[in-house]
Structures are given as C-alpha cells and as structure tokens.
Amino acid sequence: MQQTAIADQIEEELHDPHSFFTRYIWSQDHKVIAIQYSIVAIFVGLVALVLSGLMRLQLGFPDAFDFIDPSGYLQFVTMHGMIMVIYLLTALLLGGFGNYLIPLMVGARDMVFPYLNMLSFWTYLLSVIVLLTSFFVPGGPTGAGWTLYPPQAILPGTPGHDWGIILMLASLAIFIVAFTMGGLNYVTTVLQARTHGMTLMRMPLTIWGIFTATVLGLLAFPALLVSAIMMMLDKVIGTSFFMPALVSLGETLDYSGGSPILFQHLFWFFGHPEVYIVALPAFGMVSDVLATHARKSIFGYRMMVWAIVAIGGLSFVVWAHHMYVSGMHPAFGFFFATTTLIIAVPTALKVYNWVLTLWRGNIQLTVPMLFAIGFIFTFTHGGLTGLFLGNVTIDLPLSDTYFVVAHFHMVMGVSPIMVLFAAIYHWFPLISGKQLHVGLGKAHFWLTFLGTYAIYLPMHYLGFLGVPRRYFAMGGTDFIPESAQSLNAGITVAAIIVGLSQLIFIYNVIRTLRHGEPAGHNPWGATSLEWQTPDVPPRHGNWGEALPVVHRWAYDFSVPGAERDFIPQNQPEAKGHTA
Amino acid sequence: MKFFKTLGTKPWLDPTMVSTAGVAVAIDPLAAPRTALRFIMGMISVLFFLFIITFLSRSQYPDFQALAGQPWQPFTDPSRLWLNTTMLALSSLALQWGLWSARRNQVNRAVAGISAAVFFAVAFLVAQLELWRYLQSMGFYVSTNPANSYFYLLTAVHGLHVLGGLLVLTNVVFRVWYDGAMARLGGPLALCTHYWHFLLVVWLLLFALLTSRTETINRLAALCGF
User: Fold this and answer.
1) What is the ipTM of this complex?
2) Is the pTM of the predicted complex or chain greater than 0.80?
C-alpha cells in the first residue's frame, strides 16, 4: 500500500514553553490542552451530576424539598441533559482524550495546528462560562428540555424564556466554533502527521473511533448551528423560521406560519450523529483496553474498522427515529425504522468482537478491565432497548416515558462513562506517571456498576407503566400504581449512592497525585506508541530526539515465540521473534 | 477507490509490509493546511446545504412570498445583485491573477493582484450592506416575510465567510512579508484562492435561489419532496 501522507514535523515549529504561564496556561502543547479540557469538562459534569441529584430528590420524595419548584425542576432537567451530552461527553472524549492520545498514538510531536488547538480550548471555556452564567440571570437558565423544541422554548410559560434560552443558544454556537477548531486539528493530524510506517490500518482502534467521530462532528454540528442561529433570530428579532402563528397567554403573537417540525429535523440531524460522536471514541478506547488487559489481539480488527466507518455513515440517515410521534408520514417512519435496525448490525458486530477478544484471553481483572467489561454489559442492555424503540409501533406507546430515559442513559450515559473511567484508569499512569490505588478503584467500579443498574433497570418498568418523563410530580394519576412511587424512592437512593461514590474516584485521583507510587514505564505491557515515549509522562515534543518508526499493528499480544507477551509497534521484526 | 483498498489491508499478516524506515518521504508543508481547507469547505457546504433545504421546506408554507416574479418585488429586476456578483467575481479573478504572478515570482504583480482582490471583496461587502438598506427602504424588513428573513440571513452568513477569508488572507500576506519569503507566497495563496472561488460558487447558488420566482422554488421544493 502506498504511504499516502506523512508529515514529519519540523523542529523549530515546536513552540518550546519557557515560563510557567506559557507552559500551563497559554500552552500550545496538546497534552496540557487535553488536561485543561478534561478538568473543565469534569467540573461541569459534576455540576450536572448535582442537578440530577436534585431531580432525583424531587422524584423520589415529592414535596419534601421546598427549594425545588416546578420551574427549577425543568431547568435542572434541561441543564443536566445539555451539559452531560455536549459539554461533558463530547468535550472530554474528543477535547480531552482526542487531544492527549492522537499525537501520541500516531507518533507525532504535537497537533498540526497547535495555536488553533489552544484557541479551541479557550473558546470552549468561554462557552462553558456563558452556559453557567445563565444560572445567574433574571429568570434563570432555560427549562425547555435539552432538545429546546420551539415554539415553547422561547415563549412565556417556559422557565428562562427571556435570558436563559438566549445564553443557551449563544453558548452552543460558541461551543461549535471551539469544536470546529479542535476537530480540524484532530482529522488533519490523523491524516497528515502520522509517523513512518503508521498506515491507516495500523492505527489503534482508539484513533479510528476518535477520527470518525470528529468527521461526524464536523458534518453534524453545522445542523445545530443552523438551528441555533434561526431560533435566535426568531427569539430576538421576531422572524418566523420555526414559530407558527399562535396565541400565547391570550395574546396573538406576531409570528406567522413557521414550522416547529423543521427545527426537530435540524436538531436530530445533528442529534443522532451526536450519539455516535460520543459512542465511537468510546468504542475505540474500550477495544484497546480490552485487548491490552486480555493480552490478546483484538478480534476482527478490519471488521472493527469497517464497523466504525459504517456506523459513522449510517448515523446520518436514522435521525427521524427520534420523531415518530411528531406526526410525520408513516412511510417515513418505516424508512427510518429500517435504517435504525440496519445500524444495529455493525454495532452488534462490535459487541461480538469484544466478547470474542475476551474468549480464551489471558484476562487481567485490573480496574480498567473491570470498567471495560462493565461497558459491554451496559452497552448491550442499552442497545437492546434501542431495538424496541427503533420500531414505530413499539415506540409510540413508550415515547416520552421513563423507558426512553432508561434506554438512553444506559446506552449513552452509563456506557460512555464506563469507558471514560476505564480510559482514565488505563492512561492515568501515562498522564501522571503514577498508578491509581487499586482497592479504591475496585470499590469505585462496583458501586458505580451495580448502582447504575439499580437506577436504570427499575426505570424500564416505570416506562412500561406509562410514567411520563420530565414531570415535576404525578399528582393523582389513576393508571400509575402507588408502588411506582416506592420504586422511584428506591431509584433516588441508588442514584445518591452512585453520585457519592464518585467522591471515591476524586479522592483516589488527589491521593495518587500527592503520594502515589510511580507507575514506571508501560505498566500494562501495552503495544501502542503512546507507551513507548522516552519519558513518562511524555515531555513537550513527546519523542525526544527522533520520531518512532512503526513496524507492526497495535495488537501483537502473546505472539508465539516472542520474548515477551507483547511486541510494541515500534519494535523491528528481528528483536520480536526468537525463532 | 483508494479508500476501500486502504480498508482492505491486513496489517497483522506481514509486519514488514510497509517498510518505510529510512525511505525519504517528500515533506509538503502545505499538506496539512490543504487537508484542513478541504474539511472547512466541506463544513461550509453542509452549512449552506442545510440552510437551503430549510429554505425550500419553509417556502411551501402559505405565508412565503418569493422576492422575484411580480413587478413590486425587489429582485424582479436583479441588476443590483448582478453588480455585487461582478465585484465578487472580479475579486476572485484578481486573486487568481495574483496567484499566477506569485508562482512566476513576479512579486509586484502578485501584491497588486491581492490588493485588487481585497478591494473588490470589501466593495462586495459594502454593496451587500447597501443592498440591505435598499430593501429596508422599500419596506422589506427582516421579519416581514420568511423570504426576506432568509435573504438577510443567507447574505449575512455568506458575508461573514468572506470577511473570515479576508482576515486569513491578510494574515498570510503579512506573515510571508515579515519572513521576507515572498518566493514562498504561492503555496498559501493557492489555498486562499481555492477558498475565494468556493465562496463565489456558493454566492452564485444563493443568488440563483434567492432571485427565483415562486414557480421555480416550488419545483425545486417538489424535487426535494416537500
């Protein structure tokens, strides 16, 4: 195969940091930017976690807490959803792990546009600040639900309809600018800055996942930008892109003839690829963690790459399965149900391949491995309920119930979080040079894994009963038995335990950074390039004198006849084989 | 079909399959910016594609009144728009001329070409603003009709992209200038020129769409299934 594009980077283009300020604050080093991204993302993620705790308190013990009123509840729902999906998961997976791992795993010294990369982080921080500002403006943040459907999102009666929604739309637009600057870096670095011998089909699956997700993001985020701009104009200068002629609070408004459904199409044209923008990097990272800790090559590498690319392509033609109840044409629903079932095929292939990677592997039950195996469980469960909801006839009665909430939390809440923890425990020795405490890690895993099941498994039953989501309180509703309330109380207790158990993780990180044992060089015996740097943690420029040269793929584990049970990607042929 | 060939390789079979160690690979400093530019143009295409799709969908609601077709509508006589289009086209031509000159190391002509391109691009932006004033003086405000809203919105988004291009072009020229490496101007200038032509094509599409009569818009919308 022709080596297409290798750009060896020129030494003088590396902006060597000289002061504390340029090294840690205005840094152009991809590793520092990755950590900055991660810290901000985890911080807003914790805010969103607290918001979900407040929601659960109200649902589990209605009327017991005076400080949660109906508008507050809707605002918590909205901000929790938006922060978790966009500002935590997208930012942490691509801005955090994408930034850290891409140059190291493809053997580059840095991203190809370091300055743009730095701008990307600061723009992201601005978007987070604008978003959090909405908690402190008159009327509070928007309570329109994370989907921000018009016309209600910008009309009186919805909390935060005056300032909250404007700040939300502005923050999203700023985030998209930040993502674009970062995303251009990720794709260009993968395509143009790979080291000698690193062909596309020798890249670790992590890079394939991040790369494909970034391409999806670059093509899908414009849809969110278009809808945000048009909704902003509807709100601020009274155009009628999405706003129909309507009477609000007894008053005829100036809007005429717009189409709220148009917004839904635009939103989900972004929204469904967004699911895979989060899922594909997670798929990639979990593949590498599983292979490394099972000491076995990933099963069906080519099939895994094809599945990632196929899922990426198909994710653009399934969006309207979020809109079965919008009143669209039934034939339309049939089309989207079909594509939705088709996308399950490559996804299921990936699950089989993960399981077959474990099959007869030399499984090391380390903390990252526990989280990775936990992911296979949670993702399979979430994926299977997706097959239910993908069918129009089953979706109609289950739409807007807790079944949907349970489904998407299993598939794109818990599952990516499992992978994120697997990734943090796996790469922490590289990032900090220290090994996280194993006992605390295992406690964290079991509480999180079993706890999330205790939250979301009962939620499916609430959905079957027809309990609607996003309701502040049920009041006296005949078709909902009283036992549903006991179930809700139980879920709340589990949620609070899971929330608090994250403190174990935070304690573990702080404790390790202060007094942790040095992890040493390549503690997991991994093959991929990021573990082969001359220094741990890698220094500015990553590779010391010379760039590594890649001689093999990233999955040479337990090769018969080799000296060790792994052969690093940069090890030439002769040393690997004794025979 | 190189992509499919790439996806067909079996990296685990032969570790020495691609032995590039020691092989000198020609380094093209513009490879990365070129890739990035392709992605940028891809994104901008998606952006305008989505705007246009929503335009066609929105046009099928009864309150939509196209901006051309009837004598009282502003673009039944699109001569003002032709004027603006000419300016943008001249800007593109001038930049192309500048690029050719830069490639032949004729620095003065290159600078003249770039300056003319900047002048015409700024003139285009001013003329677009003037067009807005003209529309408003005729009572075609942003929110009076969805067709008006789309006109202001699309011209604004396109104008912002022209403005962004101007900033990048200025940056490129001054960086090369201060480095004293005018001989290397050709490469980055070629990328700017691509972007310029791309924005001209986008503008021509928008021009055609925004000045279409109701029947044309309806036919396009029907083609898209609205």
Assistant:
1) 0.91
2) yes
